[in-house]
Design goal:
By secondary structure, this protein is of the alpha+beta class. The protein has one domain: Lipocalin. The protein is built from four helices and nine strands. Strands 4-3-2-1-9-8-7-6-5 form a nine-stranded antiparallel sheet. A hairpin with a 3-residue loop joins strand 2 and strand 3. It is globular, with a radius of gyration of 15 Å. The mean pLDDT is 90.
């Protein structure tokens, strides 16, 4: 039954969106990567984050704010909820969850390696990194 639910969620989330599966996570200041399976689906102005184990979906306003290259040559995409302020105003902006995401790829147009999730209220020390299998092999072993 769980496999059917996962397939349904993946199909639902990937319509008109960009979806990625991650299998490991680590806190920004942590030393170890742990198994934690998530599915991230990025649509034009939303992020759907699906926790495969608990079956929970979070929907967060998120839009690409910038792209570029890291010093090590990896390509990144930064997604924030800032567009929401301009589109809907201060009152509605204050009501939403503010989360920042940085997707890091092997190259522009290449495979995803990891996603950094940052809650600005908690700060960089509490950021979390979600790794794909390829990202795990490169950064966790």
């Amino acid at each position: 039954m769980k496999k059917v639910l996962i397939i349904w969620v993946m199909c639902t989330l990937t319509c008109y969106s960009q979806a990625f599966g991650t299998y490991y996570s680590r806190n920004a200041n942590g030393n170890y990567c742990n198994m934690e399976e998530m599915v991230f689906s990025f649509q034009s102005e939303e992020l759907h984050k699906y926790d495969v184990i608990y079956g929970e979906i979070s929907v967060i306003p998120s839009k690409v704010e910038s792209t570029g290259f890291e010093d090590n040559g990896l390509f990144y995409e930064k997604r924030t909820p800032v567009f929401y302020l301009n589109k809907y105003g201060v009152n509605r902006y204050r009501q939403i969850k503010h989360m920042y995401y940085k997707l890091v790829y092997k190259s522009k147009g290449g495979s995803l390696l990891y996603i950094i999730e940052l809650d600005p209220e908690l700060g960089v020390e509490k950021a979390k990194m979600y790794y794909t299998k390829e990202g795990y092999e490169l950064f966790c072993k």
